[in-house]
Structure formats: C-alpha cells, structure tokens
Protein 1
Amino acid sequence: MTSAAETTASAGTSPTYSLVVVSNRLPVEIEVSEDGTEGWRTSPGGLVTALEPMMRSTDGAWVGWPGIADRTFEPFENDGISIVPVRLSESELEEYYEGFSNDTIWPLYHDVIAPPRFHREWWEAYVRVNRRFAEAAAAAAAPGATVWVHDYQLQLVPRMLRDLRPDLVIGFFNHIPFPPYGIYAQLPWRKQILDGLLGADLIGFQRLADAGNFSRAVRRLYGYPTRGVAIDVPAPEGTHRRVIAKHFPISIDAAAYEELARRPEIQERARQIREDLGNPKTIMLGVDRLDYTKGIAHRIKAFGELLADGSLSVEDVTLVQVASPSRERVGPYIALRDEIELAVGRLNGDFSTISHTAISYHHHGYPREEMVALYLAADVMLVTALRDGMNLVAKEYVAVRFDRDGVLVLSEFAGAADELKQAVLINPHDIDGVKAAILRAVAMPRQERLRRMRALRRKVFDNDVAAWSSSFLRTLTEGAAVRPGIPDTLAGALKDLSRADNILVALDFDGTLAPHVDKPEDARAVAGTREAVQRLLDLDGVRVAFVSGRALVSLQHVSQPQTDVLLTGSHGIEVQLDTPEIELDLVTVELEQLDALARVLERIADSVDGTWIERKPAGLALHTRLATPRNAAAAQKSARDELGALLPGLTVRDGKDVIEFAVRSSTKGDALERLRRHTGADRVFYAGDDTTDEDAFAVLQPGDVGLKIGAGDSLAGYRVRGPEDVPLVLGLIADARAAVAAEREAAAGA
C-alpha cells in the first residue's frame, strides 16, 4: 500500500487515494453555529476511532453519506482525512435505508426477532444506491488501491467495484450477524447479495459462526468449493479467485476509555450519580439503542419480577436504563418505544417510593464522558441482547473499570460472549435464568468480582480496536502490493529455464499452492494446481517436488500428491524420494530433547488463546495465527526465552505467524540442494511465500528462477500476488517446455 494520494488535480481530474473506506455514513456530521454558518465535526464512534490514524498516515479517503438528504457536497478534507460525500434523496433514504437495510436485512440477519418485509421497490433502491457508492469509491481509488467497505447497507458494493475496477484490493466487514441458511434463504434476493459480497477479496464477520453461516450459504446457493475460510469463486477465462471469509471480532479504544475514567471530574460525576439516585446499595445499568434486538423488555420483566417476589427492593437496587433513540420513523421501533415506556411506567408506579425510583429511564443519548461516569457508578452491567453482532457497550464497561470491580451480565447471543467468558453469561429468553444471574451479580463476593473483571480487562485490552483494524487490513493486503497477473519478465525467464535438459520444479505448499487457513489440516491447493502439476510430470526431463515445513505425513494429507511427486517435509529432515518409505533417523538424545520441547510449548499454548502446537518428526511449531498481535508476540518471546535457556542447541526458525523449534538443523535450502542432487537438475524453479523459503532462494544458482508469492522483502527475482497465480505459472513452464520439445523433435526430423 503506497502512503500518499496520487493527485492529478493539475490535469483537471480529482485526486485518488491508496486507501479508501466506504460506509453508509461519513465520519463527520454537519453543525450549524449561532450565526448560521455551517461546519463539520468528527462523529463519535468505534469505527472512526479505529481508522482515523491509519487514514491520516496513508492519505486515505472516506466515502459515505453526509447525513443530510437532497444536498450535494463537494469533496473536502477534515482533520487530515479526505471526505468524499455521496448524495442521497429523501425517497432513497426511505426505501434504501429505512426500508431495505433496516426493515428487510436488519430483522432477517437478527434471526427474524421482528418479521422482515420484502418489497421490490426497496430492493431496486438498494441496488441503485449501492451502485452510486461503488462508482464514488472507484473514482476515488488509485490504481491497485485497497478499498474497505463496511456493513449491511452496502453488500452489493464489492461486486460492483470488482466489475468497475478489477485492479483493486477489496475488503468487506459485516458489523451485524449473518444468519443461518434456513433464515437467510427467505430473502428473495439471496443470490444477488452473496454475489455482491463475493466481489471482495476478504469478507470479515464478528463471530466464527457468522463466517460459517456465510460459507454454507455460498455452498448451498452457488456450489462453490469452500475449504476452511477459503472460497473458490469462478473468474474470467476459466480461472478461480480465492475469497477469504473469516471472523475478526471488533473492539474499542480501551485505553481511551480508561483514561477518561481516571479523570477526577468524571469520578466525581460518578459519585454524584449515585447520590442523585439515593445511594442504593446496587446500581444496575443498561445502555442500548432502542431496538428490539437488545432485549430491553426482557431485563425489565426480570427486574420487575424480582421486585414483586421480594428478592430485591427499590431501597437497595435501582436499574438505570439508557435507551438512545433509533430509527424513530420505522413502525416496529415506534411500537417498541411505546411498549418499553409503558412497562417502565407500570413498574415505577407499582414499586417506586418517594425517595427511591425502581427504574431511572432515559430516552436520549449522552456524551462519552457522561457514559463513562455511568459505567463507573454502576455495580452491575446488564447486556441482554437477543441477537447482537458484538455489543461494544460490554467492552466499554470493562475498559472503564480500572478499579477491577463491577459485574458484567452478558447475553450468550452477543458476539462479545465469545471473548468475555468471565462475564455472567445468560440466555435472555430464560427469564428465570436472567433473574438468577441478577441475584448472583448483586450478591457476588468482592474477590470473585475482582478475579472476573481482571480477566475481562486483559481480554479487552489485548484485543483493542487498533488490533482489530490492523489484523483485518494485514490479512486483506498480504500480497496486495503485488500487481495481479504474470509479469512479462517472469514469462521470459521461464522460457529460458525450459530449455535446460533437466528441470526441477520445487514448490512450497502453505501460502504457495494453498492459501493460509486457520486450521492447517483444512489447507488444500487452489483449483487447477493438480492439473498443472500433472502436465509437468508428463513432460520428459521435468521433475516436481513439494518442499514444506510440515511433517511429511501432514504434507501428504493436504497435498494429495501424484506418485511421481518428490516430497520433503520438516524443512528437509524427512524425505520421500522415489521410495515408498519416509526417510528419517533420530538418535536418543534428540528424542529426549523433543519431549522437553513439547512440555514447554504445550504449557505456553494452553495459557494463550489463539495458539496451538503442531508436532513434527524432529521438532515442534508454535502457531499464533489466531492470537492477537500482542499475545502472539508474548507467546513467541516466552517460547524463545525458555527454550533458549533449557535447550540452547535447538534450531529456531521464524515463519508467518509461527515459530518452529527443531532438534536437528535443516532448512528448505538444504532440502532443495538434496533434491537438485537427486534429480540431476540443470536448472531449478522454486516458489515460496514464507521467510523459511528464503533459505531455498539463497541456494539458487545462475539460470535458476525464484518466485516469491505475495509481498515482502525476498531474495527471489520474481513475484506474483497469491496462490491463485501459481497454476498459471506452472502452465507457462509446461507450455514453454512442450514448445522446446516440439522444436527439438522437428530439428531431429529434419
């Protein structure tokens, strides 16, 4: 990703940008001063907080609607971010936004808690507005730029962008749940939505289950192959494009919330809130948009029953409910407000006293400072969502509690429950269960409160919003700096290579023939690889080998090689070279070192979420792909330090989100040298994506060809964007070799 906008204003055209964010709303909103002049101010919100620093450092642009209908605004700059407004009419807001987005998609994706409505004119408006956003993003994007599209209002934009600008790297993040197929299948335009999303290179979801629901819908409706997080989508000219569908749980700027909470004036405000509420023993707090997915009525019902049966009293416990206005013109929301306010009125009428109110209800939003004071004042936080993509309120409460006190009661149907397992988890539909959880929270001993909150805070701070955005963009842009297609210089080098008498085509597997996936056992080569390898095997004077850091048994399982393919595993420690048996020999002291190595790494992996151990014949690998960047770095450092002291003779090898320890030293360079000797190759082609492949690139000789897959520094002379390009490269070698054979045959005949 380049770091500056490519400005062509001098030529009479608009500037373009290397990073473009697209969302329904811009990160700014207009404000009118007392003298009637208009200006722009930055909107509060987690997404803005997450992306602001990155947007400034890359001279990025943000495309979206400015919040006012039927007005056109020219692009402008606000606080270091270029703003590209998209115009929407009042009727489009009614049909595209309030209609299709919020009265069709929103209830459908939230498990049909309210019935979705399907209107063709809403769909037509949705298509029309999505196209306008796509066109604006395409115009703002520099050649090869990264475009990150956000949320359910813009699900068609990725495909439209792909058609307009195939050079772009496109990501999409869905901030709300993605439903199971049985629910999703109700949507009349179900295939069109999937096709729109599949225009992206990376589709992010809040939960692992959401990503799985999406992949299953793709299999059911399109029949595309899916392996782990990877989906093979047909592309022009009979090729395939690899799309990744993966979960990236969003978070908050935890440090900023704690900083606010430590301010003396906010702590004083928290004390004032408690005093204004009559200094009850326990303050319970609910903070939600007024939405039927949030389970507000369920918590009010549970609280009312606890007051009715005498388990709680208004003198001891008060519930503060903040219900900020939401979609006030949409029918179900109007009815919900009436329902909630009626329930609050009845409960207060039945149980409030002159000095104590049962529920302190507030139908408006508050600035962040006031919310932080409320979080500090609250002893129990109630999050009773019936369905929620994440629910950042739960994380905000945890971040604010620097005193490590307070209890979080959290719905298991909120995405936050996947991470915040030390909360008191509930099923909000089970009113008796909610009542029991409230009583447990109110009576929880201080030591248990401190223990739970300490664990919750560690999770929130380790997985903050900066880690979320960097993880998504890092996954999206791996290889994105490389132009798509096969460079002409590479094609020429392959023709020269093909003229040698004996050629070795040696290939790394993970990240080269197959994309990286969360579960190594799910890795499979991209479509077309097997056919390309077979073409090479059928040619005289060509040998093919797979060179991997995997154990050879694992490599055999995932690669399913043809009989004539040579195999080396564990960085060359294991080989299978034209023999039915795997060659390996370890001495007693090496076996003892393996046992000690396993004990250390297993203990580290057990203590750090998102890490796991891969056993190899001569070593072990600690994988950190699913851990946060901070946890991954800490786990790798612990492993390196402990094993450096315990077993100083180990070979340590850094890879992509993995660190490997071996009791016998060998590299992919050693493996490639052995393969060269075994095959008697005059020329070698080697392709790899990882730092461990640099050892193989280092032993290439003049006339050999090294191919780096993806971005990053490398000794290889050539590179392509990703594994989907490798079968094309192998096909070029086969074509060139076949042409050479035809030339030689013709010359011999003459």
Protein 2
Amino acid sequence: MGEYKKLWWALIGVLVVAFGILGWMGKEVYNQAPPIPAQVVTADGQVVMTQEQILDGQSAWQSAGGMTVGSIWGHGAYQAPDWTADWLHRELSAWLDLAAQAQYGLNFAQLDGDAQAVLQRRLKEEYRKNTYDPATGVVTVSDRRAKAIAETASYYDKLFGDDASLHSSRKSFAMKEGTLPSPEARARLANFFFWTAWAASTDRPGTEASYTNNWPHEPLIDNVPTAENIIWSVMSVIILIAGVGLLVWAWAFTHKEHDDVGAAPARDPVLQIPLTASQRALGKYLFLVVALFVSQIFIGGFTAHYTVEGQTFYGINVSEWLPYSLVRTWHIQAALFWIATGFLAIGLFVVPILNGGKDPKHQKLGVDVLFWALILVVVGSFTGNFAAIAHLLPAEWNFWLGHQGYEYVELGRLWQIGKFLGIVFWLFLMLRGIVPALKQKGDKNLLALFSAAVICIGLFYGAGLAYGEKTHLSVMEYWRWWVVHLWVEGFFEVFATTALAFIFSTMGLVSKRGATIASLSSAVLFMLGGTPGTLHHLYFSGTTTPIMAIAASFSALEVVPLVVLGYEAWENWRLKERAPWMENLRWPLKFFVAVAFWNMFGAGVFGFMVNPPIALYYIQGLNTTAVHAHAALFGVYGFLALGFTLFVLRYLRPSMQFNESLMKTAFWCMNIGLVMMISLSLLPIGLMQFHASYSVGTWWARGEAFMQQDILQTLRWTRTFGDVVFIVGGLGVMWQVVTALFDGKAAAPAVDAGLAAQRT
C-alpha cells in the first residue's frame, strides 16, 4: 500500500461498514416484509382469496408487462396509474358508497358534510385496523369490504380485458386491448393488486403507520407522511450540508497540486504500442454500441409518442403487436446493453496494454466469443419480451424466457443468466491481462483499484438472480436495487473513474501518484454514500423506519462528491493542452466533460430532488423520477459509454480525423435535446403532478382525469422537439463511428512518417 495506506484502509473500512449496514438492513427487509396472508376471509368464514391466488396474481402482473404498465408501490412506468394507489382509492370509494346506500339510501357524494365525516371515520377505523392473525395467517374483512373488493376487481377485469366501456381508459393508459386475455389471470391480478393496497393502508403492528410507511398519499384514511418521514428528511438535508462543508474544508486543507508529471511525451504513448488482434476485433463492439444506441433513441421517441396517442402512432394502430409495454421494455433494455457494451470495449482495449503490448493467449477468440454471446442475449431477450407480452408463451415459461416484469431487469431469467455469464467471462478476459501486470515491479495501487472495480462489475450483477418469480415484492425490490443502483451507480462509477485515471496516467498526462490518490479518494466517497444509499429506493416498499433513517442519511452523502465534478471536468478538459497530439482526443474529452456536468445535475441536483423521504413520499412514481432517470442514465453513463467508444475508435483508426462539424452537431444536439426533454416536458409535468399528489392524493396525480388534461397533453407533445434534436445528435455520433470503422484509409496503420514512427 505504501504511501496510500490511509486511503486504502479508509476504502476497506467504508466497504466493510457500508456492506455491513446493507446486509443488516436486508435481514430487516426479509423479517419485516408485509405478510402475504394464507387466506383473506369474511367474518362468517367465506374465503375471498388465498396466498396462492395472490402470488399467481403477481405472476399474471409480470406476464402483462409488470412495471412497464403502470407501477406498484410507486415503481414502474408513469402513463398508466399506480395500481396500488388506484386500487386503494377505488376500493375506499366503493366502501363509502355501499355504506351510504345501506344507511341513507344515497351515494356518498350526495350526503352532507356531517354524514360524510361519520362514514369516513368508520372507513378509517376499518381500514387502518390490522386484522392479520400471525398464528393462522388469516386476514379478516367485513362483508361490506368484501363487496367493495369485488366491485373494484370487476373494474380491473374489464380494464385488463377488452371491455368496450373502458376502451378510452386503456387508450389513456397506453394499454393494448386484451392486455391480459385470460379471465382467470385477471381475477388473480386483482388479488395481487388488493394485497399491495392492503399493505399500504393497514397499520404495521405496534405502529400508527402502514406497512409502506403510509404511502400512497390518501386523505380518505389519513395516509399522510409520518413524523419519522419529516424528521429524517430534515436530517438528510443537514447531513448533505455538513457533508459538502466537510468536503470543502478537506479540499482546502489537504488538496494540493500533485507532484509534477513533467513534460508530456512527444508522441502518444498508446499509439506506440501496435494494435493487437483482440483490439482490432473491438470494431464490432463499437458498431454494436451505436447500432443499439440509435435503435434505442428511435424506440424512445416511439414510446414517448404512445403517451399522447395511447394505442396508435400518428393514427396507425400498432398497439396489438408493439404496445407501449413492449417498446418501453426494449427502450430500457437497449440502453443497458449499449452502455454495458461501451464499458466492456474500453476494458478489453486496455488488457493488451496491461499485458506489455501483447494479447494473452487466445484473447481474440475470447473477444469474438463474448461478442456473439452478447448478440445472442440481446436477440433472445428482445424476442422473449415480444413473445411474453403478446402472450405467445405458456404462462410457466414467461418468467424464464419472456418478461420478468421488473423495471431494468425485464429480460427473461434465462437471458439474465446468460448476461451474467457473459459479464463473468469478460471478467476472465480482463484478469488474464491484469494478473500478470500486478506481478510486475513498481507502483500497482491504481491497477489494484482498477482490478477491484473490474471484479465487482463482473460479480455483482449476480445479485439480480437472488429472487424468483414469486419472491415477496419487498425482498425482490431489495435485490433489484442492488443491480440498478449499487452495480450501476456504485461500481460502474468507480470503474469509470479508475479507468480514465489509468489511461491518462499511462499516456503521461497525469502522474500515477496523483491519479491513484484521486481514484482512491473518489472510491471512498462514492461507496460511503452509495452503498447504504441503495436503500432510499425502499422507503415505501414494505420496509421499516430504521431503513428510512439509514437510507435518508447515507443517500444524502451520495451528492457530496458530485459537487466537485466541475473541477474534475475542468481538469480533464485541460489535458488537451498538455501535448499537441491530445487534440486528436478532443471529442472523447468533451464527452467526459459532459459526464461531469450531468453527474452534477442529473445525478446530484435531480437525484436529491427525489431523495429526502418527504419529497419522495409525494413524487414517487411521477415524471419527476423520469427527469432523474434520463439525466443520470444517459447524461452520465450514456455520455461515458459514447466517450469510451470514441476513445477506442481513435486508436482502432489512427489515421482518422474526427469530422468537426459532424461531432459538434452531435455533441450539442444530444446535450440540448436532453435539456429540452426535461425542461419542456418531463419536469413541468412532474411538478404539476407533485402539486396534485400533495393537494388531492397520489391516485389523482396518476389518474386518467388529471393526466389527460389539455395542458398535460400539450406538454407531452412538446417533448417531440427535444426528441428530434436528440435523435439528430445520436445519428451524428453513429455516422462518425460507422464511417470511421468502414473507412479503409482510416484503418491503415499509418499515413505519414511521423505516425509510422509512433507505431514502431
């Protein structure tokens, strides 16, 4: 460890404590998850539903697209309602009407204020009371509630079928006709929706809050933020301010310009190492990146259009075979595939450099095998998604071959296993170059950190295999966010930071010592907040107050390192002045600068917007979440993967010159297009929904009447402008990469004596 001993011990200590907390809280999730009753019965013993039927309903929900059709407990897509909030409000309204008819012979809305207040008090007493018997596993409901459940289930039977009376609602929700063709599956679906609403309205034993910490906001039964919610929201802001203050102090007292690296090399050191066979084989990876990228953004425009026309594309009915749920799935999965491919490519490009400028034995074969395995997983998973949502697969095959139903891990389990094995194989290919390099003499601290990040990326995706088709929803969410948050936002962040530091130090642009200190410090900060901060996605997913407290506190610290990214961006941009040949890397550097900008705003500002418990209580599942998702996923990891792609392209095609006008158009169109998407559509809609959620209830903010207002329709249409600008930028990047890859002159090993000298 040498002079870096304190930083290494800090990182090790942070990881031990952070994962200890995450594991301890995982035990809490398992032990305190809302019970799934063995039976729901009426007072006279009539069985309303069973545990098996509830779990079958969870499978039916997954087969219909799951989180791509509306959301559960706030997690999922935003066009259709949140089914938990929607079911709860419909059932409550049905109970009130039944009670009003029985006592007054009128509907609830026709009663005067005093009569309404009496019935609403009785409603709250019945729904907040927990009738679950731990000894028998039975939940008892009144006859009136059983009738309200049946009425609500009838609505969902019609909505998820093809009943003509709800055609306009399906259109508003971007649902295809016959979303769930089987009547039996629709009945089971209703059982599952009921259970999620029961957990959201019934007090957890020993508390005055529901199993979901009183989410969703539902004034009819006083589902309002808890005192703990307010307290830990305030604490999270205080911790954020303290964290930023301590970071500024630490920066002021300990930061100094690292030892002078001296003059930059006269020629690019990477170009002095001849391309190996495995590096030349990476061209197809770069092509796959831009092919999937352009496919994804066109599918994204198609998906966004569904939010205004519902079932048609400019009047053409395409929803029968390409419904919103399917194209949204493809949009997300394509993004994850091309971003991951960009990261795989930069890693494989570095391996021969680590290995002394030569390939490990059969490395090219491994690179080729990994590529075609990736193609198989992409094609197989996309085909499975289509077959599942079109209900072409037998029900028992859906989870394994078709659609898991969970956002960001929608691909069937078989394809998920294939993806995991592919990443593990990538890890094997990486270690074949890393291990020999670690055995060499010299300072290997930066390489050790890079190695650790590679190993974590290779293994931690496996957390997505820790749940099954009928795993409890709270437990599933715990593991799903290990993939979506911890794997992506944690280890990918460390990998990217370390990979850039390693590359720049290898090129002689920064000192190895400075790069090592910066990378270790960044890793400590990222993992300190990011690891326990994973739990902030679980505030309202059937978890307890301790999880809210820990998640709010640590996730606030996630923002702290992002405040200094402006300096990092400036430092990266200044590297182009270190040597004349760095001008050839100006465009990859610009993309890395964009990463720092969007990390600060997309992950930092918009991330903290949805982070404190009190904020997320009202805006979970609204378009404010989509603001953070687009700005962070593309703004950070998308630009980073494209930057890696352009970086590798520059060395695969050493004679290539970036097309300045094309790259300028591409770069600024993507940035401006992303800003337009957010500022003209997603953020205004999200803020209006926030007001609706706070003033009326979550069900209203996600409901048909609110979402189909003219102003919101107009705002969804205006997103088209941002989409078009962004697509122009995406096409520009694709054209640059494709023309360079297929340009024979650019692929030549040298075009002049100077370049030839560099490569020998």
